[in-house]
Design a protein that fits this description.
450 residues, alpha/beta, 12 strands
Length: 450
């Protein structure tokens, strides 16, 4: 479920530093917010955290700011390629952040159907408001040129330019050229809104005018604030991608069973487990994330035993029936929702993440009662974080932990993602018939008595 909105930042004081943004009208205010968000993302902040800069905007302006930011992040490679033709070199030094203003201008002109005059004028106005008065002439010249030549220049680019080379090469090696290309095309589009009701899913699909997926998920198009929809404030449902709702559903009957949910925040899967009748211990090593989880459960009227701990050192008081690990990962399967991943991840990250994932999986397997089940899931398209991790851990445990194959009936709409050994490798491009989904790897494993 969405985080609670942060308070609106205080207006900027009169600027001793000419680079500080100035107050502006509504249209410019949303663009200034988008500019600040892009700066934060470029400095390493996650998009959802950076979006708090827009929390004080009216809903329509906040939605515009988010669309502008996500378009810049999704299309960054193509935007920079076009700008590279129109500008001799990017701004540097104290004016380096002006590149975000130019990127926003190109995004509006080439990808958001903003009229040429409005795109040029708003870019020049934003350049001035952001404190780059000396660059307004350049902004005007570049944007006017792109209003004439931008469409032709865009035709010489490719969506693959928006993705780091290491990521594309990995996908091509494991999933093939065609599925990689389709996944990148899908990653350039805004995602639908997926909802998991706590009960009466069919009824909520009708009330929210949505599509029902596997009896668990209600999917609908929506570009506003989901908290304003019917049922949110009453705790009737939470936001959760259709693929993300599958792992918790693969345990079978959970009534009265003790389940440990590792890396549990923000709590979508925790809520699923509770709704299924499980006694849940939700573990996360971050206090802010646990606070978010608690707020979300409070809204839903649900309770769990919340524990702040590192899953690699945590140990339950006694053996448990089931463990769900939604492991920390590169999140390359969530590019539509989190386009900042395109800018934050490097190939060097994978080894460290895979090491954590192996530790979590091996540790959690030791908590299981004989015959207990463990679901291991990552929202990653990287083989190193899915198939390779499961193979390493099950091999090291010498027959004490084995893959428990998921059946076609259990997989439902996701049956095409079943692998030969009964795991699921969900690629967004394989589900374009329902509008695509987040990419996931899911393995169900079982403790085997010696």
């Amino acid at each position: 479920a969405p985080d609670e909105p942060a308070p609106e930042p205080a207006p900027a004081p009169p600027r001793p530093d000419k680079r500080k943004p100035q107050a502006a009208g509504t249209g410019l205010k949303s663009r200034l917010a988008a500019y600040e968000i892009l700066k934060l993302v470029a400095s390493g902040r996650y998009l959802d955290e950076a979006m708090r800069k827009a929390s004080g905007l009216e809903p329509r302006d906040r939605a515009f700011a988010r669309m502008l930011v996500t378009t810049c992040l999704r299309r960054g490679g193509q935007i920079d390629a076009v700008l590279g033709v129109a500008m001799s070199k990017p701004p540097a030094g104290r004016a380096r952040d002006a590149i975000h203003v130019m990127r926003m201008g190109v995004a509006q002109l080439l990808f958001m159907d903003t009229g040429a005059h409005a795109a040029v004028d708003s870019t020049v106005s934003l350049m001035r408001a952001a404190g780059f008065e000396r660059m307004t002439g350049l902004a005007n010249a570049v944007m006017r040129r792109l209003s004439r030549e931008g469409a032709a220049l865009l035709e010489d680019t490719d969506v693959g330019q928006n993705c780091p080379g290491w990521m594309l090469e990995s996908w091509k090696a494991h999933w093939g050229e065609e599925r990689t290309a389709a996944t990148m095309e899908l990653a350039m589009t805004p995602p639908p809104l997926d909802i998991t009701p706590r009960a009466d899913t069919a009824g909520w699909a009708q009330r929210l005018d949505g599509q029902l997926i596997d009896g668990r998920t209600v999917r609908r198009g929506f570009d506003g604030d989901p908290t304003a929809l019917d049922g949110f404030s009453d705790g009737a449902w939470w936001v959760q991608d259709a693929a993300a709702a599958l792992p918790a559903a693969l345990f079978g009957d959970l009534k009265g069973r003790h389940v440990v949910d590792l890396c549990a925040a923000p709590g979508g899967k925790t809520a699923q487990l509770i709704a299924a009748g499980a006694d849940v211990t939700a573990v996360d090593n971050s206090k802010p994330r646990l606070d978010i989880l608690k707020r979300n459960l409070d809204r839903l009227g649900m309770t769990a035993d919340l524990v702040r701990a590192d899953g690699r050192t945590f140990r339950p008081r006694k053996a448990v029936d089931a463990v769900l690990i939604d492991a920390p990962c590169s999140a390359t399967g969530t590019l539509r929702r989190r386009p900042d991943v395109l800018h934050h991840r490097a190939v060097a990250d994978l080894a460290g993440l895979a090491a954590i994932q192996r530790e979590l999986l091996a540790r959690a397997a030791s908590w299981l009662s004989p015959g207990g089940r463990l679901i291991y899931a990552t929202c990653s398209l990287q083989h190193e974080e899915g198939e390779a991790v499961v193979a390493d851990v099950t091999g090291a445990m010498k027959g004490k932990l084995a893959i428990d194959p998921v059946s076609t009936a259990e997989a439902g709409s996701f049956a095409p993602a079943l692998t030969g050994d009964g795991c699921l490798r969900i690629l967004p491009s394989d589900f374009t018939d329902i509008g695509g989904v987040d990419g996931f790897f899911i393995a169900r494993l079982q403790s085997v008595s010696p």
